[in-house]
Specification:
The chain is an alpha/beta fold. It is built from 20 helices and 21 strands. It has an 11-stranded mixed β-sheet with strand order 1-8-2-3-7-4-6-5-9-10-11, with helices on both faces. Strands 14-13-15-12-16 form a 5-stranded parallel β-sheet. Helix 1 (about 15-25) packs across helix 6 (about 125-135) and helix 14 (about 385-395) runs antiparallel to helix 16 (about 415-440). Bound molecules: threonylcarbamoyladenylate and magnesium ion (MG).
């Protein structure tokens, strides 16, 4: 292939027009999207599509995604169904790709001979503007060399494709950072073929049900039939061999420490960075948005360190964790180290949300239950060490020689500083005792911990679930349960967290605003579909 000058363009109005012209003339332009950069060509130009495969070194049997900027373009390329319209309404523009029956107008080069086509409407304003300026839908895979980590900045694109394509629009770093969710909506049950920021659970909430294809992150094989050709290839891989450590964040850090030497690169959660000199931070262990946003950049950075091996902390996998973990498993091939034999499910949420219903369900499914409030109460009875510490800080609560929990509760109720101090003193004792009890178990466990993240006890968990209901419903439930007025109940809730707070941290959030039966059905769907036990 002849080398050409690749223009690096800011997304100004003039440059967007230039990009549109290059594309309608059959050229190739890399465009920013909210997920990763895409290498675009006009969907109606077969030769241009062929040049995409050539520039990326992409196998011809791996089809491209068609990008549109308005819903009217959808039926130029496929036969949408009712499920597709419902998902489009919920998630477009955004990181969701749908597989639909293709129209004859779309070349077999783009769909690799399949009878279906992949379509998405990205949300990045520069992507939408370029599609509009080109005046045609754009076929675009990720703008990396085939098999390498996807590009999340213009610099990554230039690194892989400078001299091979006509232009790159520099739209800064990609907000999401991993490729879109791919969902096949041609059948009766929508099926996720590639996990992304739109989770299986989010799709199930719109369509009533959804499943993840079991091959979505199966070991890569180039043999046998797969529902999505991309599943066959070892994707997203750095050149340096990489090993993935799976389990609870604390067990993972301990296991990685055993393999660490100065010759290795390390990608580890923020909480454990200090254990590994020179480590790259993946963000907090619960922060799935950060893991997605950073994963490809970190793989490229670690690869550039010239080390002999890359050791990687694997995020928790269920729900919101699935996308980053899927990419990491593919980047590491078969090199996965599992720590901890059993699942530990952390359940959290405000009072009245339904934590106990969920905990009871998981108990019936075979989990041992550990209740942090109860462990705390037992430590108050039995732990001289914890009582010594508390006595120094809260002498008034020990007026009768023993801790009077009601006096202590009254003292901290309206004093935030004291409350934080008490929690800071007791949480390590409760966490240590919980960890001790967990290590004695011979099966999975569920931890019922109101302050799961504040206490750091989420680090003992292989999955976290937040249960939430609206303020109004929580207040009604607490009032009915504890014989309070709704105003009194609302006051108790004033310091509690919002749904978003839980959604930002937990792999799974279950809304419980409706009937008990609805809640039960949601729990059942999640336990059946997500890898939590
Ligand atoms: O976020 C994204 O989806 C990015 C940006 C640029 O939009 N694009 C992207 O494209 O990731 P690419 O080509 O790297 O991945 C497309 C995936 C592949 O795994 C491919 O096998 C699958 O979609 N795919 C495409 N057409 C398909 C079809 N008709 N049936 C099943 N899978 C299909
Ligand atoms: Mg790709």
């Amino acid at each position: 292939m002849t080398e050409k000058k690749t223009l690096l363009l800011e997304p100004t109005e003039k440059n967007i027009k230039t990009a549109g012209r290059i594309l309608s003339d059959g050229g190739l332009v890399a465009i920013p999207t909210e997920t990763v950069y895409g290498l675009a060509a006009s969907v109606w130009n077969e030769d241009a599509a062929a040049r995409i495969f050539e520039a990326k070194g992409r196998p011809g049997d791996n089809p491209l995604i068609v990008h549109i900027c308005e819903l009217d373009q959808l039926d130029q390329i496929c036969f949408p169904n009712w499920n597709a319209y419902k998902l489009a309404k919920a998630f477009w523009p955004g990181p969701l790709t749908m597989i639909l029956p293709k129209k004859d107008s779309v070349s077999a080069r783009i769909t690799a001979g399949l009878s279906t086509v992949a379509v998405r409407m990205p949300s990045h304003p520069a992507a939408l503007a370029v599609i509009k300026a080109a005046g045609v839908p754009l076929a675009a895979p990720s703008a990396n060399l085939s098999g390498k980590p996807s590009p999340t900045s213009a610099e990554h694109v230039m690194h892989d494709l400078d001299g091979k394509i006509d232009a790159v629009i520099d739209g800064g770093r990609c907000e999401v950072g991993v490729e879109s969710t791919v969902v096949d909506v041609t059948g009766s049950v929508p099926t996720v073929l590639r996990p992304g920021a739109v989770t299986r659970q989010m799709i199930a909430e719109v369509l009533g049900s959804a499943q993840t294809d079991k091959r979505a992150d199966a070991a890569v094989t180039e043999k046998g039939a797969v529902p999505s050709p991309g599943m066959k290839y070892r994707h997203y891989a750095p050149n340096t061999p990489a090993r993935l450590f799976c389990g609870s964040p604390s067990a993972v850090a301990a296991e990685m420490a055993k393999s660490f030497t100065e010759k290795k690169s390390v990608i580890v959660f923020e909480e454990y960075v200090k254990m590994f000199p020179g480590a790259l931070s993946f963000g907090k262990s619960w922060d799935h948005a950060a893991h997605e946003e950073r994963v490809y950049d970190l793989l490229r950075k670690a690869d550039g360190q010239g080390s002999e091996e890359i050791l990687i902390s694997c995020p928790r996998e269920a729900g919101a964790g699935a996308a980053a973990v899927n990419r990491l498993k593919r980047a590491c091939g078969q090199r996965v180290v599992k720590t901890g034999a059993f699942a530990v499910i952390g359940v959290t949420g405000p009072s009245g949300s339904g934590k106990s219903t969920l905990t009871a369900y998981l108990r019936a499914a075979g989990c041992a239950v550990m209740d942090a409030d109860r462990i705390y109460a037992e430590l108050v009875e039995n732990s001289a060490e914890m009582n010594d510490a508390l006595k120094k800080a809260f002498p008034a609560a020990y007026a009768n020689g023993r801790l009077d929990r009601r006096v202590l509760a009254a003292e901290i109720f309206s004093d935030r500083k004291k409350r934080l101090m008490l929690n800071g003193m007791t949480h390590p004792f409760v966490a240590r005792e919980t960890e001790r009890r967990l290590s004695a178990l011979s099966g999975p466990a569920v931890l019922d911990v109101p302050l799961l993240f504040e206490s750091g006890m989420d680090r003992l968990c292989t999955c976290t679930i937040g249960v939430y209901a609206s303020r109004k419903i929580l207040a009604e439930r607490i009032a009915a349960r504890d014989g309070l007025t709704e105003e009194q109940a609302a006051l108790r809730l004033s310091a509690s967290r919002t749904r978003k707070w839980y959604a930002d941290r937990c792999e799974i959030v279950i809304g419980n605003n409706g009937t008990e039966q609805d809640f039960y059905n949601r729990i059942e769907d999640i336990v059946k579909q997500e890898k939590i036990i």
